[in-house]
Amino acid sequence: MEFTKWRHVFKLDPNKSIDDASLEALIHSGTDAFLIGGTDGVDAENTYRLYERLAGCGVPLALEMSHPDQTVRGFQHYFIPTVLNAGSVDWVIGHQARAFESYGHWFDATCVTGQGYIVLNPEAKVAVVTEAKTSLSLEQVVAYAETGRYVFRLPSLYLEYSGTFGSPDVVKEVRLALPDTHLFYGGGIDGAETARLMASYVDTIVVGNVIYENLDGALATVAALR
Ligand code: 1GP
Which reaction does it catalyse (predicted)? Predict the structure, then answer.
C-alpha cells in the first residue's frame, strides 16, 4: 500500500456509531484511505465489526495499531504509532513490543509502517492517556520531529492535535525542517478551508471527529483537495 501518495484520510473510531448511509457517502467521497483507530473503548471486537463493514469497499483500509488488544487481521496496512513526546515509556515503546510479541508473525515490512506521533492538544484523550508533554515551544516540536526522523529513522511523522485545530506555524516549521519526511496532520479539520490550509503544509491530512458531527463538513474536506 502506497501511503506516501495519500493526501486525505478519514479516521474512523470503532467505538463511535455511524449509519450505513454515512459510511457509504465516505466510501464514495474520493478519500485516499480509511484509518481505523481511537483511544477510548477500542477493542478487537468493535474494530473487527467496523472492518467487516468496510472490507472490499475499494478504499484502502489501515489500522492504527496503538494497542495490542485491538489488533485485527486483514487490514491492508498497519501503522504502529510511537508517541515521541509521551510521558510514559510504554507509549514510546512497550505496547508496540507487546503487539509484536503476539502478532509479529502476521506482519512483514511491506504492510507495517512506524509512525512518530507528536501529540500537541493537552485536552485530547490521547494526550492524557500517554501523559504527553504538550507544553512545547515551536523549536521543541521541531526538535521532537527531527529526533523521530534522524534518530529513530521513522518513515512518517504525525502531528496530532486531535479535537482542536492546531497551529499552522508549528506545522509549517516542521515541514520546513523536514522537507522529505512524510507528514500526517490531524486535528480539528472541519471543512474545506481548514483542510486546504493544513494540506498546504503536510502530505496527508487526517479527518476524524467532524464525520460524527457534520457529515457534509467531512465530505467538503475531500472535495477541497480535488
Ligand atoms: C485524530 O488526528 C485525528 O486522531 C483527527 O483529529 O478527530 O480532531 O479530526 P480530529
Answer: sn-glycerol 1-phosphate + all-trans-heptaprenyl diphosphate = 3-heptaprenyl-sn-glycero-1-phosphate + diphosphate
Rounded to the nearest 10 degrees, how much is the dihedral formed by the CA atoms of 206, 211, 217, 219? 70
Residue boundaries of the structural domains of the chain: 3-223
User: Do 80 and 115 meet the contact criterion of CB atoms below 8 Å apart?
Assistant: yes
- Judged against a pLDDT cut of 80, whether residue 1 lies above it is answered with no
* pLDDT score, position 70: 84
Instruction: Tell which atom from ligand 1 comes closest to the C-alpha of 189.
Output: 9
- All three cell numbers of 136: 512545547
**Residue 25 in contact with residue 53, Cβ under 8 Å?**
no
- 6: cell is 495519500
Domain 3-223 adopts which CATH fold?
Answer: TIM Barrel (3.20.20)
Burial degree of 169 (CB within 10 A; 0-12, 13-18, 19+): exposed
Taking the centre of ligand 1 as the mean of its atom positions, its distance from the CA of residue 160, in whole angstroms, is 7
pLDDT mean over 141-162? 97
Q: Coil, strand, or helix at residue 172?
A: helix
CB 226 within 8 A of CB 205: no
For 179-222, what is each residue's pLDDT tens digit?
999 999 999 999 999 999 999 999 999 999 999 999 999 999 99
